[in-house]
Amino acid sequence: MMNNKKFLIVGLGLLGGSYALALKKWHHEVYAIDIDPNAIQYALDHQIIDEGSCENDPALIQKADVIISGLYPKDIVQWVQNNQQYFKPNTLISDVTGVKCAILYDIQAILRDDCEFIGSHPMAGKEVSGVQHADASIFLPANLILTPTDKNTQQAIDFMYEFGKELRFNNICILTPEKHDEMIGYLSQLTHVIAVSLMNANDNKHLKEYTGDSFRDLTRIAKINENLWTELFLMNKENLIHEIDIFMDEMKSFRDILEKEDTQAMKEKFIQSTQRRKYFDIDS
Amino acid sequence: MMNNKKFLIVGLGLLGGSYALALKKWHHEVYAIDIDPNAIQYALDHQIIDEGSCENDPALIQKADVIISGLYPKDIVQWVQNNQQYFKPNTLISDVTGVKCAILYDIQAILRDDCEFIGSHPMAGKEVSGVQHADASIFLPANLILTPTDKNTQQAIDFMYEFGKELRFNNICILTPEKHDEMIGYLSQLTHVIAVSLMNANDNKHLKEYTGDSFRDLTRIAKINENLWTELFLMNKENLIHEIDIFMDEMKSFRDILEKEDTQAMKEKFIQSTQRRKYFDIDS
Fold this sequence. Notes:
Two copies of one chain form a homodimer.
Chain A: E1 6-10, H1 14-25, E2 29-33, H2 37-45, E3 51-53, H3 58-61, E4 66-69, H4 73-83, E5 92-95, H5 101-110, E6 116-117, E7 119-122, E8 143-147, H6 154-166, E9 171-174, H7 177-200, H8 213-219, H9 226-235, H10 237-259, H11 263-278
Parallel strand pairs in A: 1-2, 1-4, 2-3, 4-5, 5-6, 8-9
Antiparallel strand pairs in A: 7-8
Helix pairs in contact in A: 4-5, 7-10
């Protein structure tokens, strides 16, 4: 099913570039569009893509069987709107966006009837950005989440499964866009708010020399791309605020039992968190 | 200075056992006292100690030049009180406790004048407990924090430096007991409250299949010994509540700017956290 497909990556950053690298490795033809001429030149020089353009070149767009958007969330709908007249009939379009509801339904609503958009979210990344850091190995430990709606065909879902397998994702799973955004609000966005707030709660640089691995592990994601994450948070605002509120209620409850020196209640909190965390061990 | 010193470990758990292992490796004579006969037998069988007892054997206690308490925080003062009549003159006593003010001044107040107690905190550990998991390599990446007071001699401080170097601690530093407890309230205790509360804020076990490394890193320390950490938190209650309050104010401030969709303020939070976190990179 993947055989002989030609891929176009729009937005050649870390994820788009890593997709391109992995697809080339498995002998697909890969094109890319990015507004940054340096990104395109770098990718051509390093054989990450076969052809590229800094503009929305109709000739390049209509060569693609599959288009994957690596654009920032707010730019995707606009890009599809402006360029879909160049799409080949039956083009499959997907994305890498970390929120789904805020963009997916809009794209499916405006998209030409003879093309199909299926949402996907590779839960992969690095603390650095740009095609210069592209790395096909970031998918190996990662989940690929597909978020089909009733507008999607089984064929498109099957194709994305095969795509995920070829790129060696550790796991491929399906969620509704709503469940995806709820899950990501807790597992990813809330954890980023916590890490950011923990760093911002203290300005003592001298603490570095006393810092252990736990603190470093917990705050690694406090190094964050401010433009991307501001968009992602705003697009999932209701879920994220809900998760922040639940978490803060839980912290408040712990604070209160500590203040009252209710040792039994403290122990119960620790026992519960220990039991729950065990489910998340990779080998459990 | 360390030459020919005989060490007694009281409380042969993970840390006490790891100290014993490391000291034996460098050819010191090491004794241990623990109420658990299995711990003592295991340590004897595996040549982790030279002699051991399940009781506070006066003959064993008075052989020691250096006594290190690996007991739970609340048991240390009592143990010194009950057993100091057996101490050899000039015995140096230290500990491994994660809080300092709540125990250190009490011990120094009751201790015989011809002996010396100096507080120390090896910031090392594992998610498992017991001498069966003793491992001298846990000190290699760790800090040893010494918390001398005006009751301590330069000789004792120098000795603990040498002790830390021989055990290959990555870093040895000095803090007042007050600064230690304030620092540990933020870097260690607050991060544990956060991890515990994050796990307790959601009971959906099915999230496991979507979980990425960030969430696992952030919640690893939610697996926690409920007896030990309840003691540690209560003994540093004021500092910890202060840190929880500052952190929750910061979270609340983030929540409010997200609710208002103040993108500029969100970006400033991200930029600040990114800059601050960079100071904590190991190679910075």
